[in-house]
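Board notes, transcribed. Complex of a protein with farnesyl diphosphate.
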Amino acid sequence: MARLATRDEPVVVAEASAVAARRPSVLSDYVALTKPKVQSLLLLTTVAAMEVAGEPSIGLILATCLGGYLSAGGAGAVNHWYDRDLDRAMARTAHRPVASGRVSPRAALTFGLTLAALSVVWLALVVNPLAAGLSFCGFLGYTAVYTFWLKRRTAQNIVIGGAAGAVPPLVGWAAVTGGLDGTALYLFAIVFFWTPPHFWALALLMKEEYAAVKVPMLPVVRGERETRKQILLYSVLLYAVSQLPFCAGGFGATYLAASLILGAAFIYLAVRLLRRGDRRSALVLYLFSLAYLALLFVAMVADVKL
Ligand code: HEM
Ligand SMILES: CC(C)=CCC/C(C)=C/CC/C(C)=C/COP(=O)(O)OP(=O)(O)O
């Protein structure tokens, strides 16, 4: 039955279109499933490793980055699918495409698995089988090992699961050389030891949210002081590991200077967090951790190219 227009209608229409304007497009929802901001740093470590490993062509760099993006993006989509119950319950993640119901769980899972399959085929055919295999291990590490298995079971979830995020430099190295060597393993170790302080600094800020959804992150299970101690411990380990490629002769003075300064700053911020125990120090360390990894990998490239 036809409805009479009312004087309120323009307001209702304006409100409806304002909501529509705020609603992300389908494209931006699918891009969000791939966790693009995290990907930018993963790809930086991939490209830096490629430049350290040899003289890759632009074509090889782009092909490897596409494969890496598909693999890590597929893993991100599978994570959105599996963790939708947790994401829905936490303010930081409630707006995500699957959690908020804009993308169906089945569509997100199909999307994630399709990207992962495309990645394996693409890397195997266009780059090489080792790069494809390593990248698939990263996919399994983030999805099966971290997301499905460890995240909801143990406070060591991020320590073990963090190995997945350390795979991209190996993919880059394998793409250029067809193999792996000591320097490649040091790059893996740097990201591996970087991940716990990176995440735990943020977890300190999100402790209540994780506790509410019963995810056993370190600050929830062992308390804030123990988390701050562990952050300092891993910061010192990270510093030690970051010196190894220099000691092994893989890098020279530029890398040594950068790793000393960046490592000292990391440890200083971790000590400050331990002493002060405030939210601001945790936020500063989290933000610095992002800059640290980017600058350290840029320094590696500068060291070997300049
Ligand atoms: C399993 C290991 C890791 C865990 C649990 C973790 C966790 C997180 C979380 C919860 C955030 C908050 C922002 C968000 O909602 O996405 C974040 C941000 C970020 N992480 Fe990690 N992270 C891990 C490994 C990595 C790795 C290996 C990299 C890259 C090398 C990385 C790069 C980033 C970047 C660039 C951001 C900022 C993104 C933004 O501003 O939205 N993370 N991480
Ligand atoms: C192919 C490959 C090398 C993939 C691995 C990439 C990898 C491990 C990225 C880390 C992703 C990340 C932001 C995890 C967040 O943890 P979370 O999912 O618990 O955080 P959330 O609460 O933000 O979802």
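The two ends are 76 Å apart (CA to CA). The mean pLDDT is 93.
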